[in-house]
Amino acid sequence: MHVLNETAEAPATDGAPKLGRAIVVTSGKGGVGKTTTTANLGTALAQRGARVVLVDADVGLRNLDIVLGLESRVQHHVLDVIEERATLDDALVADKRSPSLFLLAAAQSREKEDVDIDKMRDLVRALRERFEYVLIDCPAGIETGFKNAVAGAEEAIVVCTPEVSAVRDVDRVVGLLGNRFRPQLIVNRIRPHLVRKGKMLSVEDVNAILRLPLLGVIADEPEIIVSTNRGEPVALRTDLPTAAAYRAIAARVAGEDVPAPMPQQKESLLSRVGAWFGGRRP
Amino acid sequence: MNGRQIVVTSGKGGVGKTTTTANLGAALAKRGRSVILIDADIGLRNLDLVMGLEKRIVFDLVEVVEGRCQLRQALIKDKRFESLSILPAAQTREKDAITQEQFACVVAKAAEQAEYVFIDCPAGIENGFRNAVAGAAEAIVVTTPEVSAIRDADRVVGKLQDRQMPSRLIVNRLRPEMVRSGDMLSVDDVCEILALELLGIVPDDEEIIDTTNRGTPVVLEENNRLRGVYDNIARRLEGEIVPFTRFDQQGLLGRLFGGKKAG
Amino acid sequence: MIDFFRKLFGQSGSSSTAKERLRLVLMTDHLELAPDMVEAMKRDLVDVISRYVEVDREKIDVTFEQQDKALAMLANIPILAVNRSSNGHATAPVVAAAPVVAAAPADIDPDAPAGETLGAETSGSETPVVAETPNAETPVAETPVDAQTPDASVADPKRRRRRRKRKMAGAPQSPEAAPAP
Fold this sequence. Notes:
The complex is a heterotrimer. Helices cover 34% and strands 15% of the residues of chain A. By secondary structure, chain A is an alpha/beta fold. An eight-stranded mixed β-sheet of chain A has the order 3-4-2-5-1-6-7-8, sandwiched between helices. In chain B, helix 1 packs across helix 11 (227-237) and helix 5 runs parallel beside helix 6. Chain B is globular, with a radius of gyration of 18 Å. In chain B, strand 3 (76-77) and strand 4 form a beta hairpin. An eight-stranded mixed β-sheet of chain B has the order 3-4-2-5-1-6-7-8, sandwiched between helices. By secondary structure, chain C is an alpha+beta fold. Helix content of chain C is 35%, strand content 12%. Chain C has helices spanning 2-8, 14-32, 35-50, 114-117, 121-125, 157-168, and strands at residues 53-55, 61-67, 70-76, 79-82. In chain C, strands 1-4 form a two-stranded antiparallel ribbon. Chain C has a two-stranded antiparallel ribbon with strand order 2-3. In chain C, a hairpin with a 2-residue loop joins strand 2 and strand 3.
């Protein structure tokens, strides 16, 4: 398959190229923050200097491009590369704000069933030879799109909101993933004031059911809506607790065992809720 | 009886299809209509949970299709209403367990017994979506006023137009204060972009999470401020002209004292 | 609090940015969803231009690009010759052809086949490109007709009609066009 180009990075001097990590970001339930997480985690990893590629596996319903603000620069997509109408270099969109961050967009006018799963696997492999992190944004559901997104991945991050439907769906997905992907959990859109009132599941409630290593907890944040409006991932900002949370998650993904900054939650009417997260459990 | 067969769809996941199906169905049932809600999300069922009926599942949609039970055996009657039942999806099967024709058949059978049949569509535009839409004669498209949701809704609207399916729009989780501060698209923006007839505007309300946790449709709760909203949508669906409450255009007093601050 | 200051100092909110971006991205999405329409538009464009100048159909490149706040169609059409009248000056075609209607992308039903949305196209393009025969200094480029590549010859209306009918039957036009779903 014609995906490697002439300027692919030279392999390590010991002769065997070090393969990057391929991580699928999934959930089962739609709308819990997979795309936002992929965009922000990718941005945070790239800001640390890692070479990162974000792959949108949501054929027909692409959104990673628009969340990143790169939609106007997409010329080719995953299927163009897989079907050899374009090289990987043609298709990769560089993010000018994070020089080592690239996007490989999904096709908008095709169907998920058009993807050849073996070629998808090959593509992810080829990407792993060029990038330290390959983050795959998985579509909602557990149908063909999910299977394609998971093909080629070695690890999984599951995103869950503290709501009964989401927990149930994530549980199903974790069951489907099995042990192979060593899934880790991000609890997204927690609202501590509702948890305190008993009107929302706590992180402990969620993980009592899912029993996964906890990668991070992110508070509900209206600025996320603004950031998507603008196409500017929050992880680029220094003023938001959510941004700090994504940066901390990136550090943990990179293997650092750093506790997150834990802003105090204020109960005032004008406050924004901070993000915090707990430690990794075996 | 020839009930209306309405699919509730969106493209984007998590915008409120299941919550809308449950609450709209319940609102119509409260008004005395006979209603059947069908969960078409095979493998990721949630309508039962949101309706608080998950403990009463005996048979599911796939078993009905496979002929292992009758439709009436699988329907779970919600005792809180005069005539509201749900047909749950299967949890351990996949969406290709049934064909479009089979699903359409089940929906048609349900429509013989109820004035309204709502189909809770899964997220996406894959087989689950195609099956769900195959059983419908009308569509309700649900979106939030956010870029990704609207883009996905646009794609779905295109597919519904291909099928010449009459469709109307519900804008869900509107945050009026963010619209006013220019940080969220307005209902007018959304309608303009999607070019659909508006059926309802549902403001964002953190209490909804609690109702789904408890499995209680809002129409059953006296003090729930969304109760009137879903009731209005039910009325519009029945053909009444009901003016929209323009939450994003409340007066100063309304802004200061009305509604909870979201987020 | 931040919103208050923002409004006070006139910083526009992100929703207008969102609306603009959505408008443009949906136009792009719709174009991507209607490859037949785009091909028909390209053919019609080239046919119209060919009435005035002779073009190299094999080297035509038409793309869509976001420029500032608009979606622009960029067409690179190499010109081989300018049609001349008998007195040697460049001239407009003698025969007035029916205008080709090119609808704005937003008006197009993305999934309708090309023949339905641009109904005037075939009738408009069947009239001869040039009423006078080209003179000896500007030979018409004749290349073999191939269903996979755009028309190379513009001189023979009958041949153009036959080729167009073959194309409308669905032969892929360019590497960019995805097969219709």
